[in-house]
């Protein structure tokens, strides 16, 4: 692929995969990496949410207008599966709470509406946290909501990140001879290169998967 522009938004996993896209393809393409560590889309209340994380409803449309991307990647598979305190909550809950599942679905629909306003293809990544015992139940809810959204909205496609990182034995630290995670639990350089190539092929080749 050459001459393409990809906009990457979402959390630090988005940022990491966006970095991989730059490393494997930026010499021939433009990668706008707007992934932010610590940022999901649920917009919980409280000081634990960085101010920058609250601005996606206005920032993302401005990125579309400025960069006119050919494809967009959105990943929010870590922060939004963790327990959070939304408006009206006295305690934090995860997506197994019906109210939090509804809130995530509403925010996701808002994000999809914003990001597809110019009919740009949007790619959503599943949460790899479904392989983590602590977050599995919440991540499975997220992945179901993501599947439902990708089936409902034209121009939205689901990329199974979990399927790229996990197998029948779980989500190992070493996969196909490659160390998957660095000390921060993000992809190592070889792993993010593989994930970046996989995502870019899915976006811009007819037989990409």
Automatic annotation (TrEMBL):
<dbReference type="InterPro" id="IPR007407">
    <property type="entry name" value="DUF459"/>
</dbReference>
<dbReference type="InterPro" id="IPR036514">
    <property type="entry name" value="SGNH_hydro_sf"/>
</dbReference>
<protein>
    <submittedName>
        <fullName>Uncharacterized protein</fullName>
    </submittedName>
</protein>
<dbReference type="Pfam" id="PF04311">
    <property type="entry name" value="DUF459"/>
</dbReference>
């Amino acid at each position: 692929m050459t001459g393409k522009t990809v906009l990457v938004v979402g959390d630090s996993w988005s940022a990491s995969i966006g970095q991989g896209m730059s490393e494997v393809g930026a010499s021939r393409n433009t990668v706008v990496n707007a992934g932010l560590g610590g940022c999901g889309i649920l917009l919980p209340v409280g000081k634990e949410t960085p101010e920058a994380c609250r601005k996606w409803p206005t920032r993302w449309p401005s990125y579309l207008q400025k960069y006119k991307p050919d494809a967009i990647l959105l990943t929010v598979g870590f922060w939004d599966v963790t327990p959070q305190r939304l408006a009206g909550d006295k305690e934090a809950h995860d997506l197994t709470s019906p109210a939090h599942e509804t809130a995530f679905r509403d925010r996701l629909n808002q994000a999809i509406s914003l990001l597809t306003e110019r009919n740009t293809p949007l790619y959503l990544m599943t949460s790899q946290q479904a392989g983590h015992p602590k977050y599995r139940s919440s991540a499975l809810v997220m992945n179901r909501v993501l599947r439902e959204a990708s089936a409902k909205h034209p121009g939205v496609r689901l990329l199974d990140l979990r399927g790229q990182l996990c197998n029948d034995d779980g989500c190992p630290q070493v996969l196909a001879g490659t160390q998957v995670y660095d000390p921060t639990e993000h992809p190592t350089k070889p792993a993010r290169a593989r994930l970046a190539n996989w995502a870019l092929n899915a976006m811009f080749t007819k037989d990409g998967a």
